[in-house]
Amino acid sequence: MRITIKTFIALAAVALVSCNSKRSRNYQYFPNMYESVGYEAYSSHEGNKIFEGNGTSEALKPVEGSVHRGWLPYDYKNSNEGYQSAKSELKNPLAYTEDNKANGKKLYSIYCAICHGDKGNGKGHLVKTEKILGVPSYDDIGRAITEGSIYHVMYYGINSMGSYASQTSIKERWQIAQYVESLKAGLEGKPERMDKVVAKNKSESTTNVDLADNAIHHEDGIDLNKSENGHEVDAKLKKGVEEKVSYSKKGLLQGKSHHSHKELGKK
Asked: Minimal CA–CA distance to 154: which of 76, 238, 243, 239?
């Protein structure tokens, strides 16, 4: 009897050891945690008639040529030819204003000044401490940088400089480009470029955001017929603001937070 029990235990031990494998999960106590019951997104399933019009995949694929919100394709390639084309053809779509320059200066101090210096002369902290060498000044005649080449380099990077496309938005990169141009003009002793913005156009471009902000914080005293600077407000814009005010009041009474200022300004 004892021999039989010992034999059984020995066989069981051998079986357990032989079934053990470091390359597999061995025993699955909760199979549903390993094997999904539902369809996995973008996975194909043979014989799937429900999604056969979409390549038997559960999730719908985007329309060909579509891009995600807040991003636009950049047509210039990361090559010498692409750099030269951007340098001569690419223009800053933003107006050269004091506001854009101020924002560009803030971003420049975060991402660029550490190497290029506060004045754009290539004497940043990392250069002075000899951590990085060979950073050119913005007035370098050999490079002759332009608004297009500045943006291109920020998008792709060049030499020891990496890309800043993931850290900055399209608008932010153009604001930095404006500020870099102002530094270049200062080094060359030339007047910086500054566009003249017509007061009416400037008012129209900011009225939507300003009114939305006032509608949330000063909804009892806001005049929906005029903006703060006295310009007449478009009837369509007025109606949109009235709807936002109504929606905001309702949401606040229900204990819900209203839309952010940026979202209101965009709509």
From this structure: 76
Domain chopping of the chain, boundaries: 80-188, 199-266
Q: What is the DSSP letter of 53?
A: G
Main-chain phi, psi angles of 48, to 5 degrees: -80, 105
Whether pLDDT at 163 is above 70: yes
Distance CA 102, CA 142 (A): 28
CB 237 within 8 A of CB 207: yes
Could you name the CATH architecture of 80-188?
A: Orthogonal Bundle (1.10)
**HSE-up of residue 160 (Cα within 13 Å, Cβ side):** 11
Q: Which of 188, 177, 204, 206 has the alpha carbon at shortest distance from 101?
A: 177
- Over residues 39-89, the pLDDT tens digits come to 666 666 666 666 666 665 656 677 888 887 877 789 899 999 999 999 999
State the DSSP H helix or E strand holding residue 37, giving kind and residue range, or none if neither: none
Q: Which residue would you say has higher pLDDT here, 15 or 10?
A: 10
Please report how many Cα atoms fall inside a 13 Å half-sphere around the Cα of residue 16, on the Cβ side: 6
Interatomic CA distance for residues 11 and 21, integer angstroms: 18
Neighbours of 181 (CB within 10 A): 22
Contacts of 191 (CB under 8 A, 6+ apart): 185
pTM of the model as a whole: 0.55
**DSSP state at residue 54:** G
Task: Read off φ and ψ for residue 215, nearest 5 degrees.
Answer: -65, -30
